[in-house]
Amino acid sequence: MPTDCLFRDDSYLKDCEARVVAIDERGIVLDRSIFYATSGGQPNDTGALTASNGAVVPIVNVLFLDQGKTEIAHVAAPDAPALAVGDTVRAAIDWDKRYARMRMHTALHLLSAVLPYSVTGGSVGDADSRLDFDIPDAGLDKDAITAQLAEMIATNAAVTGRWISDDELAANPSLVKTMSVKPPMGTGRVRLIEIATPERRLDLQPCGGTHVRNTGEIGAVRVTQIEKKGKQNRRVRIAFG
Q1: How far apart are CA 137 and CA 83, in angstroms?
Q2: For residues 74-83, average pLDDT
Q3: What is the chain's percent helix, strand, coil content, to nearest 5?
Q4: Which residues is 5 bridged to in the sheet?
Q5: Which of 160, 152, 169 is nearest to 112 (CA)?
Q6: Beta strands 27-30 and 128-134: pairing type?
Q7: Could you tell me whether strands 201-206 and 189-196 are parallel, antiparallel, or unpaired per DSSP bridges?
Q8: What is the rounded distance in angstroms from the CA atom of residue 26 to the CA atom of residue 126?
Q9: What are the strands of the beta sheet with 158-165, ordered from one edge?
């Protein structure tokens, strides 16, 4: 049964009521969820499910069960209280961790705009993150990239999402920047994330992750390291501060 992925429409939801629709060795499936499942370089949320009797079930891992990324399993901590199909629970995420990743993920979108090359890999962290680029010539300057990121962040650009069909994405392949990670497809529609001011679009690409509403929320970020990971592969690391 598909899970209503509430985080795709509102990344700021910290808790919600949900119903247990399935339980097996893979985890607990809810009819709706605010828990982000590991994908696209962004780690899963953690948190807890609280049953109507007060029992608290810590959630330590969250994963998609299907390629279309529509059904989510919530993995409980060992020895957690048992739930049953049909139970109503209050789901709550570790908000501080989620919000840090929202800021970081949005910053990585800006980094991919500063460096308009194909992205070969990436990872979203709580305090630092990275993108790998297919760049034939090095010549990257940490301070220059940091300054460009700061300029984009200072524009307080709006970060918005909208949906297009799989066919529309197939007709516009240039929207996809990532070589190693494909946008979540299979349900007939794909979410686009746009970062723009009234005067200027900073970024537009498919993404199933969580983001802040405004670039000003990102705060200060800096490029901490640029590594050569192959003949044409450069890893750019950023951190808060």
Answers
A1: 55
A2: 96
A3: 20, 40, 40
A4: 33
A5: 152
A6: unpaired
A7: antiparallel
A8: 26
A9: 158-165, 189-196, 201-206
Count of residues making up the chain: 241
> Residue 107's pLDDT is what?
98
User: Would the pLDDT of 157 be above 90?
Assistant: yes
CA-CA distances (angstroms) from residue 173 to 117, 167, 223? 14, 10, 29
Cα–Cα distance measured from residue 45 to residue 58, given in angstroms and rounded to the nearest whole number: 11
Tokens of 115: 């460096």
| Mean pLDDT, residues 145-158 taken together | 98
CB atoms within 10 A of CB 180: 11
- Average pLDDT (166-175) is 75
What does the alpha-carbon distance between residue 104 and residue 123 come to, in Å, rounded to a whole number? Answer: 10
Domains and CATH numbers, the chain: 4-93 (2.40.30.130), 97-240 (3.30.980.10)
Residue 218 CA to residue 171 CA, distance in Å, equals 32
Phi/psi region, residue 155 (left: phi>0; alpha: psi -120 to 50; beta: rest), is: alpha
pLDDT of amino acid 146: 98
For residue 63, count CB atoms less than 10 angstroms from its CB and return exposed for 0-12, middle for 13-18, buried for 19 or more: middle
Computed from CA positions of residues 151, 138, 127, 11, in that sequence, does the dihedral angle turn out positive or negative?
positive
Q: Cα(33)–Cα(39) distance, rounded to whole angstroms? A: 15
pLDDT exceeds cutoff 80 at 228 = yes
Beta bridge partners of residue 202, listed in sequence order:
none
Average pLDDT over residues 163-190: 70
CA–CA separation, 209 vs 195, rounded Å? 14
Checking if the pLDDT of 84 tops 90, the result is yes
Cα 161 to its chain centre, rounded Å, is: 13
